[in-house]
Structure formats: C-alpha cells, structure tokens
Specification:
This protein is mainly alpha-helical. Helices cover 59% and strands 0% of the residues. The protein starts with 10 loop residues before the first helix and ends in a 14-residue tail after the last helix.
Length: 82
C-alpha cells in the first residue's frame, strides 16, 4: 500500500505555483486557471509561508536556466536567486 506523507500533499500546489510564476515571467497569462487553484490553498497561511520559499527558488532556477540557454529567446529574464 502506498503511504502519502503530509508534505506530499503540497506538491501539486508547489508545481502549479511555480508554473504560474514562470509563465507570468514569460508573458503567458495563466491566471484564468491558476489563480482559483492557488486561492484554494490560501486558507492555510502557515503552509503557504513554507511553500513560498520553495516556489520562489524553483521558479528562479527555471527562469535562469531558460535565460542561460545558448539558443534562448529568453535572454534578459535572469532572476535573483537567494
């Protein structure tokens, strides 16, 4: 039987949040879908604070990797990584 750890329940929220941040940075508006999904998680502020740091770091890493690609059309996107 599979065992689901409590922190695993946050993975879909983290993934959607990262996708939203990266998409917005690339000029893709996914808010029609993403905002309602993300809002559904805003009820638990403690969990949100924990996830926010991870979301910021992962999104910055993805954006920076896109910006550093040699064939990238995304030059100038580089984000500050903490």
């Amino acid at each position: 039987m599979l065992s689901i750890k409590p922190e695993m329940l946050m993975y879909p929220f983290q993934a959607e949040s990262v996708a939203f941040v990266v998409s917005m940075r690339l000029g893709l508006d996914t808010s029609r879908y993403s905002v309602s999904y993300i809002k559904s998680w805003l009820k638990d502020k403690d969990e949100l604070k924990i996830v926010a740091d991870t979301v910021q770091k992962v999104a910055a890493k993805i954006i920076n990797n896109l910006a550093e690609s040699s064939d990238s059309a995304f030059s100038g996107l580089k984000e500050d990584e903490e």
